[in-house]
Amino acid sequence: MIIVDRALEKREAQGKPIRVGMIGAGFMGRGVANQIVNSVPGMRLVAVSNRHLAGAARAYREAGVEPVAVDSLSALEDAVHAGTPAVTEDAALLCACEGIDALIDVTGDVEFGAWVTLEAINHGKHLISMNAELDATVGPLLRRKADAAGVILTAADGDQPGVQMNLYRFVKSIGLTPLVCGNIKGLQDPYRTPTTQQSFAEKWGQNPYMVTSFADGTKISFEQAIVANGTGMGIEKRGMRGADFAGHVDELTQMYDVEALRALGGVVDYTVGSKPGPGVFVLATHDDPKQRHYLNLYKLGEGPLYSFYTPYHLCHFEVPLTVARAVLFGDAALQPLGAPTVEVVTTAKTDLRAGDTIDALGGYLTYGQCETVAITREQCLLPMGLAEGCVLRRDVPKDAVLTYDDVILPEGRVAVHLRAEQDALFADQIGSGQVTSV
User: Fold this and answer.
1) Distances (CA, A) of 409 to 48, 383, 416
2) pLDDT beyond 80 at 438
3) Where are the alpha helices (DSSP H) in 48-105?
4) 383-417 burial string, b = 16+ CB within 10 Å, else e?
C-alpha cells in the first residue's frame, strides 16, 4: 500500500494523527507499540489496555514513553485530549472512548477477543485484529455485524494471512487466477507441547502455549482458514496437503494439478522447509496464451501455474499500515467474504479421558486441523476456537477429531453463542460449494 505513507505524512503535517488504542500488551503488542510510537508519523498510540497494568505500562516504556494510569472513561478522554498516553486494565474504556479512531486486538484469546470485538463494533470503532483464532471461529458473523455498524473489521498486514491476501490481490490485479495460497513453515509436529517448546519460548520472550500453537499446526490452521474464508478457496483434504519440501517455492508449480485446483475453487495450503522462508506464496494460472508468452519471457516459466512469493512476513512492523488502510481508505487487509468455506477442528493430541478439561490452544491435549465447513457441519465437529474449557463426556483416542457430542461446552461463553448465531445465519449456504458475498 504505497499510498499509505503519503497519506500518513499528510495527517502528520495537518496535526490530525490517527488515534489508536491497543488491547493486549504481550510480546507482539509491545512490538506494535514500539512501531507506532517511534516509526509511524501521522499516528498516535493514545491508550493501551492489558489484563495487568504493569504489562500495558511496559509496552509504552519500552517504546520510550511514560504513560498515565486511568480507571474511568472521563480520565481516558482527558488523557487523549491532552496528548498523554494512557494505560488501563479496562478494555471497555478504549472501546467507548470518543477520542480513539481505531483499535488493535493483540490478545490472541477467542473468548475475550469476541467480547472486545462486539464492544468495538457497538461503539463504532474500526478494529484491526491479530486474533486469527477468533476470526476463524466466528469471523464471518462478526464481519456482518461490523458492516451493519459501518466500521471496518480486518485481519492485519504483516501476519502471514495478511501478506498472502496482499499477494493474492496483486496477482488478481494483473489478470491471473490464483489457485493456491500458501504459507511456508519451518516446523510441523502436532505432538509438540509447552514443555517441548519452553526453551524456545524463553529465548525469545514468548508464551510457551503460543509457541506450541505454531509448532503443532494449530496456528497455521487458523491462519489458512481465514485466508480460505477471505478468498472463497477450499482445501484438498483434512489438515491440508502440508508437504515437506526443501526446494524453492517456484518448484511447487509442478506439484499441483491445475484442473483439480480449479474444481475446488483454489486451495489454501502450507509447506515445511521450503525456500525462501518464512514467507508466503501464491500459485496462479492465466487463460490467455498471449499473456502466457509474456510470463515465460519474464522468467516465470511456461505454466500452467506461475509462482509468486513474498520471502518474509514482518508481523508487527506492518500492523499500523492496516490501521491507516481502514481509517483513511475504508480498506480491509483481509476479511471473510461471507459464509465460511474452511473451519479449524479440534483433534486429540493424546488419548483423552472422560472428565478431562481441554486446556488452552497450544496446550497438551489438542491441536487444530483445517476441515471443510460442509464436513464440519455434517459430522458436528468441534471448532478448535471453542475447545478450551470443554469437559470430555467420554474417552477420545489420539488423533481423533472431537465432536460436539464428545464434550460439555462451558456455560455463558460469548464465543459459543456467537458460533451458534453464525451457524444459523449461514445454514442455507454451507455445503453448497459457493461463497455468498456479505
Assistant:
1) 32, 11, 8
2) no
3) 53-62, 73-82, 91-96
4) bbbbbbbbebeeebeeeebbbbebbebbeebbbbe
Cβ neighbours for 181, distance < 8 A, ≥ 6 positions apart: 164, 167, 168, 224, 227, 228, 231, 233, 266, 267, 268, 269, 280, 281, 282
Detail the DSSP E strand segments found in 33-190: 43-49, 68-69, 86-88, 102-105, 126-129, 153-155, 177-185
Grid cell 472428565 is found at: 355
Residue 145 makes CB contacts below 8 A (sequence gap 6+) with 118, 121
pLDDT of 131 reads 95
Task: Name the amino acid, one letter, at 110.
Answer: V
Q: Which residues sit opposite 367 in a β-bridge?
A: 347
User: What SS3 class is residue 306?
Assistant: strand
In this prediction, residue 1 carries a pLDDT of: 56
Bridge partner list, 47: 21, 86
Separation between Cα atoms, residue 438 and residue 338, nearest integer Å? 5
Burial class (CB in 10 A: 0-12, 13-18, 19+), 90: middle
Angle between helices 160-173 and 218-231 in degrees, nearest 10: 30
Q: Which amino acid is present at 192?
A: R
